Fold this protein.
Amino acid sequence: MDQREKCFKCGQTVPWVCFAGNTTLALFKVFVGILSGSRGLIADGLHSASDVLATIMVLISLTIAGKGDDETHPWGHGKIEFAGALLVYVILLSLSIFLFIDAVKAIMHGVTTPPHLISFLAAVVSIVANFILSGYGFCAGKQLNSPAMIANANENKADMLSSFAVVVGIIGANMGFLVMDSIAAVLVALIIFRTALTLGIQAFQNLIDVSLPGEKVGLIHKELAKFPRIKGTRYAKTRRVGQSVWVELEIYVDPRARIEEAGVLVREVRLALMRRFEHIKEVSITFSCREVPVLKKRRRLFFQKEKQAVQAV
């Protein structure tokens, strides 16, 4: 079994592991948060509950995206991963606003008792668990180039950061700064909001066929430069369709080349790009002629001589 197959099998188990982990964390933190009176831990538990929804969306989108191409979807179903990720971030934005308003109200009304220290232990458990889940998700998501898995891993990372804020808030509240726990809840809400907004914009851009980042397009041009028979590139268009990348190129070839030779070059370039970049699913290449400087000079001299001959007559 090669590395690609191992990553694929791992990717099939990641959503289920994350689903079980996030469900357990959500129930655990909300339960302990209610018992201990920690508003920050309850907010963090609701954050984990949103991660459960995110994982469910990942499972659904990966199932649909795995159907492949058909007559009605010639480019596949990969866009569903971006749509699923965008829906998750919309839910998280709504949750962050709710948590922020609730925490601010608590601060304004005043806090009389600190949360029990058992909430501190629960938050530490959450940090460790989310560190493991996010690392697991990032590994599979990056290897498979899955936006849905990466989105889910980012959620676990944000949950880990919010648990750090909860730890600080609980310690501060038990040291006499009672409002710290509610401030931690505000920080949790802001972390969720920032993560959801940033990654939601990214998912939306991919949904409307934004090009790959400049450095990745540059790698494609670098690969094209290895072919001396390519005299230039008119355009290189790219777009992501879920885990796959589609590339459209128009290259310039020597006008002296025969059609058959240009066709062979196109096939060679296509195979080279698909071998070099494993996530490229298809490369569409057209070609046109561009005169090399020597030919331009010869053509210019020919017409000049013809013009002088006509004038002489």
